[in-house]
Each structure stands twice: as C-alpha cells, then as structure tokens.
Design a protein that fits this description.
alpha/beta; 7 strands
Length: 163
C-alpha cells in the first residue's frame, strides 16, 4: 500500500482475475498456495458453485497435501497435512454464533486457515488477512477478486495470466 503524506495508509484497490475453467481456478489456487505462509487466514466469499473448493484444492496442491480435498460443508472442518497444514472451514450451514462450535476459536499460527463463507461469522471475516470474493460470470467463467491481502498475495493476482 502506498502511504499518504500524512502517514496514513490508503486502502489497496481490489484486483480481479477471470478464469474460464475449473482447471484455471485450480491453477490460480496453486499460485496462491505458493504465496501463503503459516498464520495466514484466507476468507473465501461467494455463492454456491463459484469455485471456492476448487481454489482450496489448488492451494492444497501447492502446500503438498497428499490426501483428497473436499468441501467440509457437512462436517464444517477438515485439517490437511502438507508442507504447511491447512485448516479448512465451511460455515455455509451456520448462523449467528454457531461458528463457535466449529473449534475455530482463533487462527492456527502454524497453519494456513481457509474459511468458506466467513461472512457468516463476523469475527472470522475480520480475522481474514486475505479476503477473496468469487462470482460466477457464466456456466464456466468465474471472477476472483482480491478484496484485501498482503502484497505477496496481491502479486499473484496482478501476475496471473490474462486473456
């Protein structure tokens, strides 16, 4: 972020990447995973079917997770072992303070925490060091918008292949 002359930091402008296939969304996840560090909390906002879990699969591949990765919608949480552990939460079925029962009382400092539907638990959305919004543009096209995140994540978005 650029600093203004008064010492305040201006908010970063969001940046977006469009993908045209599941494979492209997965590849962006792989690139993101290479930029993530232990302690990062990534919020993934978007309607059903916008590619959140596929993005998580790409991140998991970059972090050398060997098992299969799937949406934890019905169990709320999965932990995957890799070069860096991944804590993967899906809050879709939760309302209000029900997120407290997920076991996520604070981000794991030794893992990358990925939270689908973070807006369902306001405090978790605030904890997200990176926030990505996914939207469907057509049956196969998605727009992934980096709402906020560290420069290393922003660089992934800014250097992603473009059409």
């Amino acid at each position: 972020m650029a600093s203004a002359s008064n010492g305040w930091r201006r908010p970063a402008i969001s940046t977006s990447v469009d993908t045209s296939s599941v494979e492209e969304t997965h590849e962006l996840g792989r690139r993101l995973g290479s930029a993530l560090k232990a302690g990062d909390v990534v919020g993934l906002e978007g309607d059903l079917g916008t590619g959140k879990t596929e993005l998580v699969r790409g991140i998991a591949e970059a972090l050398e997770v060997t098992g299969s990765v799937h949406s934890p919608t019905f169990v709320l949480h999965h932990r995957y072992q890799g070069r860096l552990p991944i804590e993967h939460f899906d809050l879709y079925r939760l309302e209000g303070m029900a997120w407290v029962d997920t076991g996520l009382d604070e981000p794991a400092p030794d893992a990358v925490t990925l939270i689908e539907w973070p807006e369902r638990a306001g405090v978790l959305n605030a904890w997200a060091t990176t926030l990505i919004r996914l939207t469907s543009r057509s049956a196969n096209q998605r727009r992934l918008t980096l709402v906020r995140g560290p420069d290393r994540v922003r660089e992934v978005f800014e250097h992603a292949p473009r059409d």
